[in-house]
Amino acid sequence: MLTKQAWCTACLVSKVSNNAALSAVGNRIIAEVTQPGFMKALANAARAVVAVSELLRSEAAARQLAGPTFEVVTFSAATDMLLADTASAVGLYVKGMTDALSSLLCGPRAAASRPKVPNEATQIVEALVESELFAAAAATLVDSPNAFASAGLSASGLQEVCQEMRTACGSLAGAVGQLALLRDELASCRGQEGARLAAGLWRMGQHGAVRRLQVALLDQLAAHAGMGARLEEAGQEIEQERQQEVAAQGRAVGQGPGKNVQQQQQEAEGWAGSSGSWWFAREEAERGQLLGIESGRGRSRGGSPPERDRCEQESYHCEVLGATIGWWCGEQPEAEPGAGVSTTRPPPLLAARLTARAAEAVCLLCRGKGLDGGYGPAPTSMFTLVQVKPHGVRGTAC
Question: CA 395 to CA 74: how far, in whole Å?
Fold first, then answer.
């Protein structure tokens, strides 16, 4: 209930924050729903549902929690549905917050505020960073149990879970990509206060759940391009090459791994072994179909998706690139003294492998390959709207 109310409120905030006639109302709403305590409550609720789902993987624990009133399979199925619903609702709330930030920093009234950061934007960014809501939202996806392994879910229940998971994917991919662009806007156009807030957004990407989500999204992109059989194999190859690279650098310094190598090992934590581990992308790859889409919805006689579906899929993949490669290629601030490891980028080898695989996937999809015929014989070429620069893929913030 809390997550549904939060989502509705966030959607309202994104609408009114850019409307001068409703600015007073919008400011009051923002002040209420962007308090750190409110976002912490959402984050804690999401973590609790993930923890219960994890616990219920044990039949003994499920039997104990279900008690005499419910059958274990019924209780487990209800928890799977609750987790999917939570992932969708929290994802939509987070996307609503980034939409509100975009209106505040890049909307029609934003130019007049430069270089000052609007107070409402400061409050949203600080609350997002302090609450770790992004990490909690990411965990509802990447740490969720495989719904296909749930004995209690009916066919319609499984379809609903997949639909909610797909909604959450779209919301979080769009939100992370949007934050990457807003982060750069804050760092470059908003003075010292903007730089401080941008550094906080950078730190959000350090969390292991956010890192796993970024790799999972690129896994899903590869699965959609028909490259899914190689997901786990690619993850193993990446980890083997990373270990070889660290060992070689350790030999180069003579006395075992030096400080620089140890730091690289720390920075690799949360990335290594994550490729191929997300059940949703893996199931799409193994089943050869897009999950969470109603069976037969809008398919032509030839079995290809209609133009609208292809556009939606292409748009989603653009957001995935913005949330991953786009996030990594920003100008990261220097680490503060005593702050420890601060990079939110994968190790260079992993970044190169993931980027190359993503490029191959996009090429296949643009040629009509992959699940459901990719983008079809005449793709809309939304990727031409994404700026390609020497250091990565970027979009436009404002």
Answer: 45
Same domain, 197 and 219: no
* CA 189/CA 184 separation, integer angstroms: 8
CA-to-CA distance for 162 and 273, rounded, in angstroms? 24
CA distance 163 to 169: 10
Are 242 and 382 within one domain? yes
Which of residues 169, 204, 239 is at a domain's end?
A: 204
Range of the domain at 289: 212-394
Q: Which of 356, 228, 342 is nearest to 289 (CA)?
A: 228
266-287 in b/e form (b: 16+ CB < 10 A) is ebbebbbebbbbbbbbbbbbee
Question: 226 with 304, same domain?
Answer: yes
Among 292, 343, 7, 308, which residue's Cα sits nearest to residue 159? 292
pTM: 0.80
Residues 226, 200 within the same domain: no
103 and 225 housed in the same domain: no
- Residue ranges in the chain modelled with pLDDT below 50: 1-3, 7, 12, 14-18, 20-22, 252-259, 266, 295-303, 337-341, 384, 387-397
Q: What's the alpha-carbon Rg for the chain, to the nearest Å?
A: 22
Q: Which residues contact 336 (CB under 8 A, 6 or more apart)?
A: 199, 342
d(CA 178, CA 190): 17
DSSP state of 340: -
CA distances from 279 to 55, 282, 326 (A): 17, 5, 24
Q: Name residues whose C-beta falls within 8 Å of residue 285's C-beta, 6 or more positions apart in sequence.
A: 222, 223, 227, 228, 229, 231
Which whole-number Å values give the CA distances from 12 to 1, 22, 37, 149, in the listed order?
17, 11, 20, 37
In this structure, the answer to whether residues 175 and 284 fall within a common structural domain is no
Instruction: Give the total number of structural domains in the chain.
Output: 2
Report the distance separating Cα 248 and Cα 238, nearest Å. 15
- Give me the pLDDT at residue 126, please: 92
pLDDT, tens digit (0-9, with 9 covering 90-100), for 344-383: 678 777 888 889 999 999 999 988 888 888 787 666 656 6
Verify that 150 and 197 share a domain, yes or no.
yes
- Last residue of one domain, picked from the residues 176, 204, 232: 204
Give dist(CA 171, CA 128) in Å, integer. Answer: 16
Q: CB of 270 within 8 A of CB of 212?
A: yes
